[in-house]
Amino acid sequence: MNRQEAVHRLVVNVDIKGSGRLGHQAKIRSRTGMYDILESAFRAVGIQGGDQLHLEDRGDGVLAAPAPDVPPSALVGLWLEEVHQGLREHNAGLAEPLRLRIAMHGGPVSDDGKGLVGRAVDLTCRLCDSEPAKGILAADDGIDLVFVVSDVLYHSVVAEGGRFVEPEHYRPHPVRAKETDEVAWFHVPRRTEPPLPAPGPVPAARPTGVDTPEGPDRAQASADANGGTGAEPGGPWPTKYWINVNGSNQIVDGAEVHGDIVGVRVTPDDDSAEGAGRGGC
Questions:
Q1: Taking phi first (over 0 means left), then psi (-120 to 50 degrees means alpha), and beta for anything else, what does residue 46 get?
Q2: Which CA distances in Å does 236 have to 171, 199, 251, 259?
Q3: Which tens digits make up the pLDDT trace of 4-62?
Q4: Which residues pair with 249 in a beta bridge?
Q5: Is 48 helix (H, G, I), strand (E, B) or coil?
Q6: Which residues neighbour 217 within 8 Å (Cβ) at sequence distance 6 or greater?
């Protein structure tokens, strides 16, 4: 196979919290501990290295991609459990415990001979380095591991459940950085939910070809149409796009529509409308 050919693979990014503040010997201990924990976890799911695992050193972390035939359910299940238990054992009695952020996403990637390339790699790294992931570790010193997956990986793999998989303990949160504007799912093993920061306001996006207010009143008009909050009607879903069509508001996340259509009013010359329209996919 041409090694620059794009192949769909699961991408894993691991980062050590606060490594920039560590002294030289502390950095070595942290890296040694991280590699020992990760390699043991990969062996537990039958990944021995070589052709089964692409591994890139990132200084204070690693970028990994198992072979395409490795089921993602093994990574979000047993592999994550092994990392969690290995981290607990490693940190027992340490004054400065090793704390990790781990992100996963799947998609087409290529190997250009120097490393993996592709949007799947970019997004995985963005999720791992995201403010919500960092915020979880900052919120609670008792948390040594935060795990984040992309929206598509959550719905296609995590939500299906399985051994050591806890979909009910994941929580969605928007991730916005550079060119990234995504919904990701965050998890802390053995916690019912992660201590996520409150999501920021969602900006209104003006659709093409639809009359909307101009200037600084645009954001206020979007908020007014949704009860003054700018948030999705009837639910906690983070939003990516707002569509305002003649007073009807829908919230679109990727290719899905969540929530009701609201704001449709009966006009004197409209014999067919009856109150607020409701809809969804």
A1: left
A2: 10, 10, 12, 10
A3: 789 999 999 999 998 777 778 888 999 999 999 999 999 999 998 788 999 999 888 99
A4: 244, 262
A5: coil
A6: none
Q: Which strands form 248-253's sheet, in the order they lie side by side?
A: 241-245, 248-253, 256-262
Q: Are 133 and 39 spatial neighbours (Cβ–Cβ below 8 Å)?
A: no
Structure tokens of 212?
């909307």
Pairing outcome for strands 171-177 and 241-245? unpaired
Q: Report the distance separating Cα 236 and Cα 274, nearest Å.
A: 27
Q: Report long-range pairs for 45-52 (Cβ below 8 Å, ≥24 apart).
A: 45/70, 45/74, 45/75, 45/78, 45/79, 45/82, 46/70, 46/74
Domains of the chain with CATH codes: 7-187 (3.30.70.1230), 201-281 (no CATH)
